[in-house]
């Protein structure tokens, strides 16, 4: 195939390669106005310009050659590289729990092609064993690649497929389930699975990594070990997110799927339980619970799979001077449910009122959550709140906005009866609404304060 | 029939057998016979305000105990593109180190500890790198690609260093030859180690991420002095831009050495070029010695694959009179193991480096790979054995040793014993193959110890977090306009100016050439005077006085200008310098007062000569004229200083 010969090159750069008859993976000697360069021509990233040719020089480094400086090129050899992840058979150990790992894509399930820098999403048990042999000491692992999508492309279709696949595994008698997932929307999926897979007798652990596994300091290996421990040996039979506790390689936290959120764009310890404490800590030695009450592991396989989702649900983040057409356009587009993320205790401005009334009349379910993330919606405190409630907006207590969005989609997927939907939304399945917020449920420390400085000097953040 | 084995004479004989001579005795012929070959990787920190990939300040250092928080990481080897683990990677993984980073808010943000992706490359650093590349006659790349270079020792929290090639294929002119350059890269500096004890290595992150360039030469150097000359040249070239950092740790070099039939061994982090000759000399001979060890072993051991160590755990009660080491080990509830090395008699005490024998190679690896602190072993070929002969005999019996075998007794925590045994066997087997590819740590005495396995070429891969940076001709040409001239040109110019040769190193080291040139063109003071002043007087002052905080070399230009404008003799500069050096803010008039200088007219000084002549004739101790002159000069010197040049005064005295 001709495009393979010039992988990624376009425009002028492609012309130069063609002119001098040099292919990608060809060893080339290039004469330029800046001197002579020698190396292997590498594929070019699609998004980069058409003014340069990429070479891997003998010392292993990559450099770019400006095509305007090229006086001549000669291909002296050709050696195509094929990057393949080695597979080793995952050993079976009598007596260890059976754990199933579902792959969905994302950082944890990817490796880097060392030559091109392209990310290869793949993770068979054999590959996993090759990369993290310690897993074989924890469980007997089986894997299945359900999809290979980045986190941001996960959606209702994937949630439903995942729920069904989990149901099947539980019926077959698996001891625990791990889901490898990109981290960006990990908490959306965690919420979806909490609602779609109820009464699970085994742990369902979602895990990701903030640094790809091709990096020596990746959190992927340790996260996987923690997830395998929680899934195979832990007693908490709930949908949980398992990620780093501190940014240090120390312990993982198990977060309840409905109360967890990604809180930093790049930290390893990005997932935090909001408005409550995490369920447990996990190390390779085992799970140590923090919350005394949770769903325990059972021997039966009576799981309830509810794979429903109405896609016409939206979430709008209120900002000052928001115009009513923001809501009107949703109504006109046929949306059946809206989650508003309001200011403070759950407020929006007056100009939106007519649109909200219109939504009610059109049978669109409207619910209120808060931008502060921590704390409850309290719509009785100010007139604004009372006005909004009278216009049909239902406060969702301390449900996190993303969780509310997922739950509303799930509820509307089962019924269009607004009262029924309201009831479902306000009846917690697993702590998406809690009756109380514990005192240690809100901890965002501020640096610089002497006692905090003393604390972070001793305790790893 | 058992022969009595004398380790010391075996050591000396082996040293003689490989033809070891000290560096003083060595000639080019010595190095030609050894096939001495050496190349350099010269690292130089750039003088920028910020770090390379984040906005933290560069050049602020913290003390080991000054930190705000700690971060812990473990490094895992990742598969190479061929699906194999790199040698270093496996070794580092075996060591199972917990890496602790001590972070100070002032110098470290979330980027350094790998919790935030890189920001745009520091353009100031990139431009300096291009300037130095141009000076090094390198071909500048069309586009800069940031590459990840894996390091699993923990010295960089990501597990890789971000580095980028700026130029390839250049050359430098030494006095008698050209040395070819492979490449120049700009990269982030690594952490500074605080300690490395057992399974815990502590780093501080202040230096981490500071811009650094690395100039790599071809292995063109054929003797130790040439390596030093090339290294000095590269350092002086870097400094000639005035845009690089100086001081401890700002410049460091890795020196690659091999001998004929040897392997590339990298001596890492040599802080002073003056250590290079001794280090390279010894390393070449170490390889030469290891080649002899290989030959001896190959003669005795036919099938290396079938060669294995045998070991037995022993306890303290085994020994009649245990030495202190063994006693201490036992007190720490360490396990003690005796190991038999078949056919290794005479090998353990084989010479490797001055004061070191083959057994040291094993002990070094036990420390680095098995994490067992030294002293971690003793053996059957110590010069002064700490194990009683009876005990050693008992051990030999226990291990069923043959007469040609050697024995090691080592100790360590139980969890490290397995790795230790593997390490001993592995190093011994390597000896049958020749010289392991290693990086080695240097010591002032010119010896080295094992540091790590030399990483392979498969540890480079593209950085997916950064976009390539195009370098346009117009940008490069603009940088080219402001380049200083070549060090070799400057060298020749200094010679032409008749500046004493012994000052050159100091002038280049301190990048004083531009100042000498400025003093010459602007003040019309000859480079011979200013060069000598810098290279002799200033150098002396620097070594003997406390430098004031605000002092910089430009003050010397100001000093010369002051003397010139006030018609004072330049001799005065020498006396004023110590005061200025310690109190750079003091104005020059006050400095003159401090050194008790009084302005006296030339005529007044000269007018005293006849009187002094008379006086001397009264006390005359010698009829010789020069004695008279000498005595008179001595009397006049304190008042003459600065008011009249001594040469002129002497002439006047002689004429009178």
The total of beta strands of chain A comes to 23
CATH topology value of the largest domain in chain A: Rossmann fold
Tell me the number of strands of chain B: 23
Largest interface: A-B, 61 and 65 residues
Oligomer: heterodimer
CATH homologous superfamily (4th level) name of the largest domain in chain A: L-asparaginase, N-terminal domain
Please give the count of helices of chain A. Answer: 13
Report mean pLDDT of chain A, rounded to a whole number.
91
β-strand amount of chain A: 15-25%
Task: Describe this structure as you would to a colleague.
The complex is a heterodimer of chains A (461) and B (656). In chain A, 26% of the residues lie in helices and 23% in strands. Chain A has 13 helices and 23 strands. In chain A, helix 5 (156-171) crosses helix 6 (186-196) and helix 6 (186-196) crosses helix 11 (401-412). With 656 residues, chain B is an alpha+beta fold. In chain B, helix 5 (224-240) packs across helix 6 (276-300). The longest helix of chain B is centred in the middle third of the chain and has 25 residues, at 276-300. The chains are: A alpha/beta (461), B alpha+beta (656). Chains A and B meet through strand 2, strand 4 and helix 13 of A and strand 2, strand 4, strand 5, strand 6 and strand 7 of B. Strand 4 of chain A pairs antiparallel with strand 5 (143-144) of chain B.
